[in-house]
């Protein structure tokens, strides 16, 4: 079964529930605002969706994380100035979880990062690879759910998770978060978003919500570079009233 849910003021989520399991496959789709799109025909509209979101700017959390690297003089790359990544020896290696068609990936590549971009949709990766003026020698891609992802310990400088972790299965969230912590090198940065318990979607299946205390506990292995908690009424893409509770995070692993 597929459900189409409005997210933020101009975003959508497709929630696909397997009839034979309790697992969820979730794709975040920014800017799809045509109210005539119905869940049963949405899969036929992937191309229209990606065209609708072309040219979106990178998210603020990523830009702030990149600025931290630019200003930092204490980043630990280990015993030498280079380290091993999916590409061999590299000085800046990022993983973009739930990359979509690459709005954040493109900025990482533009700034010279080696990037592993991961998304659950084949077309998302295809569109990323078809973007003009990207250095594909710096890019590796996978079609994979992040719940099943395994990253080597101390291998990544930056993990970007823009609006994807709240849709991780609750039973898998702890494992995914532990993987993020262990995969980051000392001084590496996590940037992304989590949903709070006062969000009006907190009772919905397929979304993972946290109290402020729980978020604080998750961030114990980190020092905060930027943290912004949004807790306010707003509107969905359909104009319905909704309360938003979101944690915007940029945090450096100690």
The best one-word shape is globular
The helix/strand series, from N terminus to C terminus, equals EEEHHEEEHEHEEHEEHEE
**Beta content:** 35-45%
Rounded average pLDDT: 79
Content-based structural category:
alpha/beta
Main sheet properties? 8 strands, mixed
Instruction: Report the uncertain regions.
Output: 1-44, 77-89
Q: Give the % helix.
A: 10-25%
In whole angstroms, the N-to-C terminal distance is 42 Å
- Radius of gyration, in angstroms, nearest whole number: 18 Å
Number of helices: 6
The number of strands is: 13
Topology (elements, then pairings):
Elements: E1 2-7, E2 11-17, E3 24-30, H1 46-52, H2 60-71, E4 83-85, E5 88-90, E6 93-97, H3 103-110, E7 114-119, H4 122-129, E8 139-143, E9 156-161, H5 170-183, E10 184-196, E11 209-210, H6 212-218, E12 222-235, E13 241-253
Parallel strand pairs: 6-7, 6-9, 7-8, 9-10, 10-11
Antiparallel strand pairs: 1-2, 2-3, 4-5, 10-13, 12-13
């Amino acid at each position: 079964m597929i459900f189409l849910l409005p997210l933020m003021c101009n975003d959508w989520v497709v929630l696909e529930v397997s009839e034979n399991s309790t697992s969820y496959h979730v794709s975040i789709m920014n800017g799809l605002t045509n109210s005539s799109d119905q869940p049963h025909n949405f899969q036929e509209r992937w191309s229209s969706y990606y065209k609708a979101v072309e040219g979106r700017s990178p998210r603020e959390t990523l830009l702030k994380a990149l600025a931290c690297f630019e200003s930092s003089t204490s980043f630990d790359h280990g015993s030498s100035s280079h380290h091993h990544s999916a590409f061999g020896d590299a000085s800046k290696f990022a993983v973009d979880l739930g990359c979509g068609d690459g709005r954040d990936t493109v900025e990482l590549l533009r700034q010279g990062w080696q990037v592993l971009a991961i998304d659950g949709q084949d077309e998302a990766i295809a569109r990323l690879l078809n973007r003009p003026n990207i250095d594909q020698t710096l890019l590796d891609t996978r079609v994979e759910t992040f719940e099943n992802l395994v990253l080597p310990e101390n291998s990544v400088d930056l993990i970007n998770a823009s609006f994807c972790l709240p849709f991780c299965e609750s039973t898998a969230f702890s494992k995914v978060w532990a993987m993020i912590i262990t995969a980051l090198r000392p001084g590496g940065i996590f940037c992304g978003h989590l949903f709070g318990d006062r969000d009006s979607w907190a009772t919905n299946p397929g979304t993972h919500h946290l109290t402020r205390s729980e978020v604080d506990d998750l961030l114990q292995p980190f020092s905060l570079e930027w943290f912004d908690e949004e807790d306010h009424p707003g509107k969905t893409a359909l104009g319905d009233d909704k309360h938003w509770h979101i944690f915007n995070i940029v945090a450096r692993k100690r």
